[in-house]
Amino acid sequence: MGLENLIATLQVAVGPVILISGVGLLVLSMTNRLGRLIDRARLLLEACRAGAAMEQTRLDAQLKILWLRAHLLRAAIAWASAGALLAALLVIVLFLCLLFHWQQVVFIVILFGGCMAAIIVSLLYFIRDINLSLHALKLEMNPEIAE
Hints:
The chain is an all-alpha fold and 147 residues long. It has one domain. It contains three helices and no strands. The longest helix is centred in the first third of the chain and has 48 residues, at 3-50. 22% of the residues are buried.
């Protein structure tokens, strides 16, 4: 293994490492949203226990949306984490290919494609969560206009 090969491999590996950092920030954002969601659900549950029957329908609708959002965020976090894991595996495979002189181009392409696909799926779940949070806000502001 020559120094030139190592430098070239390090240059190629920088991209997936930066991707891991970006996905980490995305996961941080998602976990913060999940934490706020759980706090909001606890407040609504307390209001359900103490609330009037007239409020019960609105609170139930809010809790159903929060439950769905929690599942969406869990899936988004899992997919983003899978993407980061695949990016980390990609870096390892790049170095193993250099060290053992393997020509594993197809495997590298599959790892990178899987990483990108996982991040895309994660972002789709995240967008769905954001849309549901707007629907919940609409319910909160005016229950009569909710779908």
